[in-house]
Design a protein that fits this description.
Structural class: alpha/beta
Shape: globular
Strand content: 5-15%
Distance between the termini: 48 Å
CATH architecture of the largest domain: 3-Layer(aba) Sandwich
Mean pLDDT: 95
């Protein structure tokens, strides 16, 4: 007998036209100590692509791919933009869903990538009377489907630029947030698994897309600083911390990082994210099957706590 009667994809959300950009960013930054000037600076990243983040379409593509592997309806709800999670939970309830298994578009444990999605679920369910139960699958950074797909993406990049050095990247987070989660350890371990498969040796890591105030320490080195001091002439950047090629990948790597590499005459290739790689999609389906058979093991209550803001 099935434990679940639906799958829920949880994601960050993204604008789809210029008019969406500022309301979307206001949702993202609400309650955070980020100057408006910085928000407007980030808005320009979206305007560079006509206000459209590719993330929503990539979620649609992932859902269609996943539907080929699971015999359950697949719903989708976002934290910061439409379809908003509470609206999706309401639709699930109206459709008669009683219990769903949820997958977040984040493979690693951190406050924003794991615990906050559980908080999003709790808020959305509280807003919908009679909401279905929703069990979130924990971070899946070490699942065979993710590792194998990531190794394939790096292998393809190496075919395009043989002999290049490889640096992995992930979204920078506050040092205090990282200390309260397994984020860094999981990133390093996943990259080491990929390197081991490809015979690449020691992992080299940098971080990207920092958004906090300059007074708050965040994970370093920044990928731009890494490229400025890089001592060779071929470089592959692997955004292992991202599941799809959304704005932080397209702008911060394909535009900014690639531009820095060009200034230094460094040959530059950015490896693809796992996206809808068949091995990755099959891995997500395996997670759903395991949940159906054994249930979901919840994260520890004290895991991935948010960073404490200065003065609090």
């Amino acid at each position: 007998m099935s434990r679940y009667d639906a799958v829920l994809l949880l994601s960050f959300g993204g604008p789809e036209k210029n008019e969406d950009v500022i309301p979307f960013l206001e949702n993202v930054l609400r309650g955070r100590n980020v100057p408006r000037e910085r928000m407007l600076e980030v808005a320009e990243h979206y305007y560079h692509f006509n206000g459209r983040s590719p993330l929503n379409q990539q979620c649609r593509d992932l859902i269609e791919a996943l539907k080929q592997h699971v015999d359950l309806p697949v719903y989708w709800g976002n934290r910061n933009w439409h379809p908003m999670l509470a609206d999706t939970v309401r639709q699930m309830k109206n459709d008669g869903v009683k219990r769903a298994v949820a997958i977040a578009t984040s493979a690693f444990g951190s406050y924003s990538g794991c615990r906050q999605y559980q908080e999003d679920i709790d808020k959305a369910r509280a807003a919908v009377e009679g909401a279905p139960e929703i069990d979130k699958i924990p971070p899946f950074w070490n699942h065979e489907g993710f590792i194998a797909a990531m190794a394939d993406r790096v292998h393809d990049a190496l075919l395009n630029l043989p002999g290049a050095g490889v640096v992995y990247t992930a979204h920078s987070v506050p040092v205090a947030m990282a200390a309260a989660s397994p984020y860094v350890e999981q990133l390093q371990a996943a990259a080491a698994k990929v390197n081991e498969r490809l015979g690449l040796g020691e992992v080299v890591f940098a971080y990207q897309s920092r958004s906090g105030p300059p007074t708050q320490p965040w994970l370093e080195p920044d990928i731009g600083d890494f490229i400025r001091s890089y001592g060779a002439w071929k470089l592959i950047v692997v955004p292992i911390g991202f599941l799809s090629d959304h704005m932080e990948v397209l702008y911060d790597l394909d535009h900014e990082a690639a531009g820095i590499a060009k200034q230094r005459d460094i040959e530059f290739v950015r490896a693809a994210t796992v996206g809808t790689h068949p091995l990755f999609v099959a891995g997500l389906a395996d997670l759903v099957r395991r949940a159906q058979e054994h249930g979901v093991t919840a994260c520890r209550p004290d895991c991935c706590k948010p960073a404490v803001r200065p003065g609090r």
